[in-house]
User: What shape does this take?
Amino acid sequence: MAFAPWNDRQTDFANYFNPGYLGVLVYSMAKGYSVTNGGMSLALAFPGVAIALHPDIRNALPRTIATRFSKWLRDHPELRTDLILSTQSLVPQVKEAVLTSLRSNWVSTENGRLIAATKGPPILKSDKTLDDDQTAAAFVGKWFAKVGDEREIYQQIGVRP
Assistant: This one.
């Protein structure tokens, strides 16, 4: 799998969608998912990162994982298009982030599922954006674990995995 050379990426794009930053979100999702449901399917990293990163979607998240994912989508039909587009457009960046997470030993794989390491990525000093993104990623991981089946999540979003 070939990725664009780092120097060929737009500076703003490279800064915000860099594999280390997104790898932290993948780790946070996998850790949140594992709290209730073991390892997370790799397929869930794509919509999960999109939800955590997109400010409108992130701000519309429910307060608790008790809210059904399908109900949330029905209550926010205006976000479905953003979620579909973000999920599809971030595929290369999320793939790179998963590889970074694996190489950095923040996550491992077991039976094709992502397992968060006990010791996660070192974050020396975070800011509000990173905190918000990480909190949202962990929430989405727990929320997706409640649904359980990645095919069901993708069907509800309206994207084929």
Summary: The longest helix spans residues 128-147. The chain has one domain: 14-157. The mean pLDDT is 87. The longest strand covers residues 107-110.
